[in-house]
Amino acid sequence: MEREVGGGKYTTVSIPTTLYRRIKKIIQGTGFTSVSSFVTYILREVVASYEDRIDEEPFTEEDKQAILEKLRKLGYL
Amino acid sequence: MVSRPHGGKLTNRVLRGKRRERLLEEAEELPRLNLSFDYAVDVENIARGVFSPLEGFMIQEEYLSVLYSMRLPDDTPWTIPVTLDVDPEEISGIKPGDDIALFYNDEPIALLNVEEIYGWEKKEFAEKVYKTLDINHPGVHKTLNRKELLLGGKIDLLKGVPSNFDKYTLWPIETRLLFREKGWRSVVGFQTRNAPHMGHEYVQKAALTFVDGLFVNPLVGWKKPGDYRDEVILAAYEVLIEHYYPKNVVVLAVLRTSMRYAGPREAVFHAIMRKNFGCTHFIVGRDHAGVGNYYGPYEAWDIFKEFPDLGVTPLFVREAFYCKKCGGMVNEKICPHSDMYKVKISGTKIREALRSGARPPEYMMRPEVADVIMSFENPFVGD
Ligand SMILES: [Zn+2]
């Protein structure tokens, strides 16, 4: 189910109530205003670290040689 | 390992070979849209990956998502809308699906495949991006004077925008390879529009102590009267690097995009661009990209808390000053002494000295840097 809050779109995921209570406790006195904002923060951090493992070479070997040539000519290498 | 491109993939929308030749000819026959310099350089920035993962000007869904959530629809952090505004009469007869040619200085530089034409609320834009509607804010002023419709769609680059700084022009694909060749595993990016004084050097070296390389990336282009000319900034950095930095720890290259003066949102945008160049870290000043008193002193730092997934580490380095008691450059975090010992490194005072033909005091600016600035007949814009 999607809904909109303050221009952003949100959906619901389920977590165990025990975990919910545990998070609620640890975010007291932090900048997090809700369990949802804490969970969003943590998930983004974790997801980004997963994505970091995917690495694509953005150039062919031929491109690479041409770039290295330019870098040498300009004095960067 | 240099940083991963923002959004996972480095954008490359540069046409090459036969296809480019053919489309270059076809461009002459297509409906034409003339771009000003600011837009033309951003077309090239998109095509060459500086704005990765963007591949064109934003469609409405992207625009609104960035405005309200500071993220692209796929959740990638993005804080400044990149849009192309047009007057209705400029695009009469053009509909989604059409190709148009983007011209700069009477030459076709890119093709735009129009995906969407949509209206926008300029005040909504100003309020979200600049956090003010005050017309005296340069960004608000610019925004309210922009045209009525936005064109969204992917672009393909036919030709780069000529530059006075070819020697200092590197694109993300090039810097990424360069950093790798140098064996740098961590690189800190430094944004500037100034000739370097001791405060800048201190901040850069403080950061450089903990990473392998420093990427000094002056933003060149439009300036206000009294600013250092771009060629002066580059010459000043050349002598500073030559005399005061170890070999092979600094890369100096320019970035052409306009200042938005959007404070916190722009600080994140600056970090994202440097991430695309391969930086793992980025120095964020207090009041980074701010203007006047529109932003709180730490807003440009606080905003980074919203982006645990930014993929580039902000370094919040405090402004440096000279402390007579410490006997060197320090900042408020490491110097316990009272104000009577502190000397602020004032850009205005340095300029005044240079204008009168005198070297500023050595604790403010390196003599070699001062000399090279004064070797220019007109080091400042509008003199
Ligand atoms: Zn001190």
E-strand count of chain B: 16
CATH architecture of the largest domain in chain B: 3-Layer(aba) Sandwich
**Level of helix content of chain A?**
40-55%
Shape of chain A: elongated
Mean pLDDT of chain A: 88
Instruction: Please state the average pLDDT score of chain B.
Output: 95
Summarize the helices and strands and which ones pair or pack.
The complex is a heterodimer of chains A (77) and B (383).
Chain A: E1 2-5, E2 8-11, H1 17-26, H2 35-51, H3 61-73
Antiparallel strand pairs in A: 1-2
Chain B: H1 17-27, E1 32-34, H2 37-47, E2 56-57, H3 60-69, E3 84-86, E4 99-104, E5 107-113, E6 116-119, H4 122-129, H5 138-144, E7 149-157, H6 172-181, E8 187-192, H7 198-208, E9 213-220, H8 230-244, E10 250-252, E11 255-256, H9 263-276, E12 281-284, H10 299-302, E13 313-316, E14 320-323, E15 328-331, E16 342-344, H11 347-355, H12 367-374
Helix pairs in contact in B: 4-5, 8-12
The complex binds zinc ion.
Report on the architecture of this protein:
The complex is a heterodimer of chains A (77) and B (383). Chain A contains 3 helices and 2 strands, in the order E-E-H-H-H. Chain A has helices at 17-26, 35-51, 61-73; strands spanning 2-5, 8-11. A two-stranded antiparallel ribbon of chain A has the order 1-2. The mean pLDDT of chain A is 88. Chain B has 2 domains: 6-157, Sulfate adenylyltransferase, CATH 3.10.400.10; 166-374, 3-Layer(aba) Sandwich (Rossmann fold), CATH 3.40.50. Chain B is 31% helix and 19% strand. Chain B has 12 helices and 16 strands. Chain B has helices at residues 17-27, 37-47, 60-69, 122-129, 138-144, 172-181, 198-208, 230-244, 263-276, 299-302, 347-355, 367-374; strands at 32-34, 56-57, 84-86, 99-104, 107-113, 116-119, 149-157, 187-192, 213-220, 250-252, 255-256, 281-284, 313-316, 320-323, 328-331, 342-344. In chain B, strands 1, 2, 3, 4, 5, 6 and 7 form a 7-stranded mixed beta sheet that branches. In chain B, strands 8, 9, 10, 11, 12 and 13 form a 6-stranded parallel beta sheet that branches. A 3-stranded antiparallel beta sheet of chain B has the order 15-14-16, covered by helices on one side. Chain B is globular, with a radius of gyration of 22 Å. The N and C termini of chain B lie far apart (45 Å). The model of chain B has no long low-confidence stretch (mean pLDDT 95). At the A-B interface, helix 2 and helix 3 of A face helix 3 and helix 6 of B. Residues 323, 325-326, 330, 335, 337, 341 of chain B line the site of zinc ion.
